[in-house]
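# step 3/5: fold
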Amino acid sequence: DILYDAGLEFSLPLGFNIYVPFLISNNIKDILETNPDYSSKTNFQKLTSRIRFTMNLKDSNPLHILNNLSF
């Protein structure tokens, strides 16, 4: 069996990334559907629940980011 997940990744300033998966293998889909919270969602809710937000610390200076945060 082959597991795959394909989508688009958007890179934002300061090392932030957003990944939106559009295709997933049937094996992954079957595993996700075993979760009652996931299986009861609409297709749009399923898509949005798989969106990933990441921050690449290698490409950013965390001290610089913390110093520039304003509350």
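# step 4/5: annotate
The longest strand covers residues 16-24.
# step 5/5: archive (pending)
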